[in-house]
Q: What sequence folds into this?
């Protein structure tokens, strides 16, 4: 078996090198200087050749970086003895533009998380006749589950996050919500047992396009991944898979369903599917209906990714990953994650300050013809600090995450719509009553805490024509206390979407809606960065303590 694998690996590498050599000469090759002829039948041949060559060949480090990265991947694959997928570390930028508040993302390995294996066929919303034969869900936990299993919070992730929301004994690296999880923090591990999963369709331990496709056979696993044979997913499928885990753990009712960004969609969907099994909902920078503007931004990301020749219609696992498309997609995404006001404060119109491109270098010599320094020569590659920041973000991400997972999970976000018409079309229905067997061991259950209502939110700028339908769709959530939090500088999930969600919940009859609207400059990423405001609102909403008025203590 190992000999066959080695032979196929060698053939695969040869094919990759041949394909790469053919494309690199067109797309990423460095310019080759033409040599001047030393002998010719024409006495003017040398002069003609010299005249045809530019005096200096343009240098584009930002273009060369793609071929450099490709060479590093090929070298790593050759050393490993087999194509290994998107696990090569990208070259890290040392540019000062990378300074500033940034969330921590880590790539867990299988020894650092738990895995739930579901053995039964799992029908999906958009392909009920072609179910997943089985699936895995990777998850991590924090805190201690009480005897009655009534202190459980299910934490839902954003698009590209793993289950590693905070450090653990198995994985001490900081998680993407590190400062929100722990003793005395917003998700207080002295009071709650927190579960976070990698979503179905992801690439950090849960079944997704990069997973082995049982229908493909191939015992050694090479070339047997689903690729784009993986079925199209919905947020409903992602959440239903999480409920299978919750049932497996014997948890009858969640104390709360909490999520931000895509997780803000999932937190609503989880409660909608089982209204009797969720005590509270927190939807932070989320929405109940993907807007056309958000769909457009994610479509642009998928378009540049799928245009990368290495994507190969989704079947690239035995070769080079579409790293260039992933880098460009992440640059587009980063534009949607932050805000113009932050970048004005953080970068302004400043240029990068390395010695090769600094104004000081340009000012070192006076041009005798003008009597003053020549203007700084602009570059066509990243020149402004904001450009170097986008370049760094794309470079840091392009080999961390599976391209097909990005395509599938982002599409699931686009498809999310909780209006009554959309729900009826899909045929999804809530399930009332409990499905899991809870332990009969003694213990004191956690008491539900009345929720302090937030201030009245402003009305949406434009009264949405679908608001009545959205309210009808959200009717199953009418009895669940819900926190809705939005950010005014968010361009990916504009604050109007949170205002609409809050208004629709109230129209549906929910009298326990707490709404908060933040005015920070960090855009959509505020939920990852603003510990004081986001964490404070969440801590108060979830608090088990009581103040003199009988409301949740802030």
A:
């Amino acid at each position: 078996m190992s000999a066959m694998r080695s032979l196929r690996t060698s053939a695969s590498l040869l094919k990759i090198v041949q394909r790469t050599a053919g494309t690199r000469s067109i797309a990423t090759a460095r310019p080759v200087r033409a040599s001047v002829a030393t002998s010719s039948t024409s006495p003017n041949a040398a002069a003609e050749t010299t005249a045809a060559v530019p005096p200096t060949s343009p240098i584009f480090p930002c273009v060369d970086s793609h071929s450099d990265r490709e060479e590093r991947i090929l070298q790593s694959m050759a050393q490993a003895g087999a194509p290994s997928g998107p696990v090569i570390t990208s070259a890290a930028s040392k540019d000062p533009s990378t300074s500033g508040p940034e969330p921590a993302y880590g790539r867990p390995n299988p020894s650092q998380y738990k895995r739930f294996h579901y053995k039964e066929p799992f029908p999906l919303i958009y392909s009920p006749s072609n179910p997943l034969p089985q699936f895995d869900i990777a998850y991590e936990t924090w805190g201690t589950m009480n005897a009655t299993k009534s202190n459980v919070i299910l934490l839902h992730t954003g698009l590209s996050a793993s289950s590693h929301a905070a450090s653990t004994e198995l994985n001490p690296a900081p998680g993407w919500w590190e400062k929100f999880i722990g003793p005395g923090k917003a998700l207080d591990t002295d009071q709650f047992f927190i579960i976070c999963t990698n979503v179905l369709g992801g690439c950090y331990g849960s079944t997704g396009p990069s997973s082995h496709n049982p229908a493909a056979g191939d015992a050694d696993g090479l070339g047997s991944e689903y690729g784009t044979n993986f079925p199209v997913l919905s947020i409903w499928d992602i959440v239903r898979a999480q409920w299978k885990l919750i049932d497996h753990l014997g948890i009858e009712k969640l104390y709360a369903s909490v999520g931000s960004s895509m997780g803000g969609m999932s937190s609503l969907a989880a409660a909608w599917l089982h209204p009797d099994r969720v005590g509270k909902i927190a939807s932070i920078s989320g929405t109940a209906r993907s807007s056309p503007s958000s769909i457009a931004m994610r479509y642009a990301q998928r378009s540049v990714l799928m245009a990368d020749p290495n994507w190969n219609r989704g079947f690239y696992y035995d070769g080079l990953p579409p790293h260039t498309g992933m880098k460009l997609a992440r640059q587009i995404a980063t534009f949607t994650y932050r805000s113009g006001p932050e970048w004005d404060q953080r970068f302004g119109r400043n240029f990068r300050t390395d010695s090769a491109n600094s104004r000081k270098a340009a000012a070192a010599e006076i041009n005798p013809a003008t009597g003053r320094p020549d203007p700084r020569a602009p570059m066509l590659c990243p020149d402004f600090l904001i450009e170097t920041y986008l370049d760094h973000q794309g470079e840091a991400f392009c080999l961390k995450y599976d391209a097909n997972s990005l395509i599938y999970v982002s599409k699931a976000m686009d498809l999310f719509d909780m209006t009554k018409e959309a729900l009826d079309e899909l045929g999804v229905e809530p399930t009332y009553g409990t499905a899991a067997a809870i332990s009969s061991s003694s213990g004191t259950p956690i008491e539900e805490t009345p929720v302090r209502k937030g201030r009245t939110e402003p009305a949406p700028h434009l009264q949405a024509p679908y608001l009545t339908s959205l309210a009808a769709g959200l009717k199953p959530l009418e009895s669940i206390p819900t926190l809705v939090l939005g950010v005014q500088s968010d361009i990916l999930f504009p604050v109007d979407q949170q205002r609409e969600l809050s208004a629709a919940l109230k129209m549906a009859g929910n009298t326990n809606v707490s709404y908060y609207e933040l005015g920070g400059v960090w855009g959509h990423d505020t939920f990852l960065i603003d510990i004081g405001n986001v964490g404070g609102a969440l801590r108060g909403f979830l608090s088990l303590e009581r103040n003199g008025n009988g409301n949740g203590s802030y």
In short: The chain has 16 helices and twelve strands.
